[in-house]
Amino acid sequence: MPNHQDYSYESELTATAVHLNHTAVYATDRQLSAEFIAAILGLKVGAPFGPFLPVDLGNGVTLDYYEKRDEPIQSQHYAFLVPDEQFNNMIARLEAVGVTYFADPSHTEPGRINRLFGGRGAYFGDPDGHNMEIMTRPYLRP
Hints:
By secondary structure, this protein is α/β, with parallel strands linked by helices. Helix content is 18%, strand content 24%. The chain is built from two helices and seven strands, in the order E-H-E-E-E-H-E-E-E. The strands form two sheets. It has a four-stranded mixed sheet with strand order 4-7-6-5, covered by helices on one side. A hairpin with a 5-residue loop joins strand 6 (121-125) and strand 7. The chain is globular and about 40 Å long.
């Protein structure tokens, strides 16, 4: 395995020139999982693209749901920056389908939201146990 020094070089791009385009989200039932997150976020599920079922987000990024049934799904974290005026609607949709939301990523504060960085946020599990997050303000990084 190469050491860290093998990766040091002068960057030719600025961080603003590189954008995430899509990511695969493993699911035991791609239709169920894609419809779940689309419903909560107020989005639509796109047409199948090969083995993927896409959910297009507002910033040009696509969640490509991919069925994986031969082994357990490893839980991942997906955070969505959402409009403040839509946050209550998303919480209401979670409540309507009986999904508990939490103020914290460890899911120890049920039915509560957080107010990090002057915004509002909540965490919830999807059908495969991915830890989803909705937040109205981006995290302030050092």
